[in-house]
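We emphasize that the prediction below concerns an isolated chain of 327 residues; any contacts that depend on oligomerization or on bound cofactors are therefore not represented. The input was used exactly as deposited, without trimming of termini.
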Amino acid sequence: MKKDFRKKIMAVTYLIVIIMVAKTGGAEGTAGAAGAYLKMGIDARALGMGGAYTAVADDAAAVYWNPAGLAVMKRQQLAATYTLFPEGGDYSQFVYAMPLNVFSFPEDELSGSHGQAESGTLGISLIRYAATYNIEARRIDSLNPDYLFSDIEGCYQLAYGIPFYQRFYLGLGAKGLYHELDQANANGWGFDAGLTWRGIEGLRVAVAVRDVYSQLHWSTGIQEIFPMVFKLGAVYDYAVQAHGIMLSLEGENNLSEMPTRVRIGTEYRFHQLVFVRGGYNDGAWAMGGGIRIPSIGWGRAGLQLDYAAQENRITGWDHWMSMKVNF
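Result of the prediction step, given as a token string:
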């Protein structure tokens, strides 16, 4: 039975790899595609690594990158990410992740185990993207606008990750979508899924699919279908004494004319307190860093602050800030 199960997992993984390679080629970029803002990513740690985070995800940001990563969380986490764009818009994201074992019975002193089996982790996220504010609208050719409007869109996400089979972890997510543009508005939904294998010490391999059946229904009667995205990634984490280094690689394809995107990321850490990161995202560079404060004087709560700079081919560099509180 175990061999049959492993063969099925390997077959699915190989199929995804074949599809990604076969679809390589065609036009570049995703600008203009439905839900393009969801391709920006979240969390300065992930963005500082060039977005090569599918196999790395082990915190609240896994709600977005790979819901299977939620399954390894041991503590609750509240996180926020924010950036301003030179053209006048902004992007913000808030996420809360809670291992359901916080509701378990206290640890048994004799057996050393909890009174409740592994229950997985639940994550909730809100993403809001404003392309621009105060756009002038005119019904006739005049100097003064008739009114102002904004272009705002976003989504609400609910995800759940749980240990699946031996070293496999499974994650599923659902999201509600919205878009407000002038006097029109749209609402919709979508789904995400992920599978992570934590193999030999330090090695992780993950596959994720995003925007399954994701679509928007406009008040004007128009329907937008989001391109489904497949991602395959691997990460190796090596640590010796106070030092650690992580190297991540992944490919992404949306099964359209867009070629496979390649991302590479690295992170160096010292005593799990200071972090330096770098990455490559399909022709654009990224870098960043962070610091962790183990205790902020509130129970077991700790604080982490991260920064990332991503190369933007149009505006230069985008700057991201993230804050995480673990408790």
